[in-house]
Amino acid sequence: MDGDDLKYLLRGAFDSQVLNHGDFNLVYGQPSGAGNPWTIGYRRQPLELLLCPVDLEALPELREDTSIATVALDNVATLADTGTGYQVETVTGFRTWFEVAGSPRVPLPENLRALVGTPRQDGDGTLVLEQESDAEDFHQFMSHFMDTLDSYYDE
Hints:
Blueprint: H1 3-17, E1 25-31, E2 38-44, E3 47-53, E4 69-72, E5 76-81, E6 86-90, E7 95-99, E8 105-107, H2 110-113, E9 126-128, H3 132-151
Antiparallel strand pairs: 1-2, 1-7, 2-3, 3-4, 5-6, 6-7, 8-9
């Protein structure tokens, strides 16, 4: 399995859960702590962020999951750059911290390691997911989202 194979699986998982999936750019996000990673969909119009949990041990099976968190201008309570990632809270009580790196090391469970005959991963059971340009675009998106929120509080 290589990074493109993993991106394909992540895109499939996102697309199966989001009706208008074609409107969103995607990045892989790792939680700052315990929990499943996120496939993060984001778009600039309307300004919106979708956090879809990914159960890597379930892939390539696609489970219907209703725990997608939607973050938009009408429901965001906190959106902060922590220096190494982001903190997101909504008015409904959803809260998470996550990081989006350009080359995250993704732990591959056995089911993913067995998908391709010649796996291309490190010896430690991880795969480096190359998403530098996508991560840079996401960080620009988050800066724009935070600037837009700040503009509501300017006098």
